[in-house]
Amino acid sequence: MTDPTSPTTARPALPDTAEAPAPTGRRPYAAAFRALIALTALTGVVLDTIDSDDLGRLFSYFTIQSNLLLAIACAWSAHRAWTARPALSPRITGAALLYISITGLVFHFVLSNDASGFAMTSQRTPLESVANQLLHTVTPLTAALDWLLLTTPGGFLLRHAWQWLAYPLLYLPFALVRGALLAPGTDGRYPYPFLDVDLHGYAGIATNAVVFGLAFYALALTLVLLDRIRPHLQPRRNRISPTASGRLK
């Protein structure tokens, strides 16, 4: 007869409860709100596409790219919230938040500000005006609301701040190489005035890149800090009820 205390027949140890991922419930309100953000961003892009006669130029704008990234992140996050899966990594959601925040802040404080020296003012069609508000105002504000109201604080780490800068830094050579490949005088050769080599030269562009890069890094650090100190506004779940979605403590 086998000895029940023998190591060869001992039951395998259960996984450490403290290290096991906590189960999560469906989050329909978060899913609906994030789906709405994704739809808003896509609507703005579609309206701009309908009214554009140069799609290559249109999709070279940081505004369009950041809104597409936000739409993907929000749609993905909405699916996970609806299907009771764990939330997306803060590294991903924080990156989307930073990029769309850059879009909104640069537009309102630089591109729409005549005192900045980099203003972009032009006559817009009704479709362009609607798209402009959706892509530069509505999506940044709703993304910020989602972060503040529907996510758990403390997920952003200091190392995320510089990691998030990879895309804005890569956007610089993308814009310069694209402009260099186009013929001088081409409309929209450089997507933004502060990246226009014809106006500022490469030395001026390097200076602008450093200034904007430091500003973007400061914004990333600010998001990390605010994420650490902001209150938790989500309702707490019952931790002792048998129907609670979190593990017992």
UniProtKB/TrEMBL annotation:
TM spans, by residue?
29-47, 59-78, 90-110, 130-150, 162-181, 201-226
Question: Where is the stretch described as Disordered?
Answer: 1-23
Q: Which of UniProt's keywords are assigned here?
A: Membrane, Transmembrane, Transmembrane helix
From the Swiss-Prot or TrEMBL record, give the protein name.
Pr6Pr family membrane protein
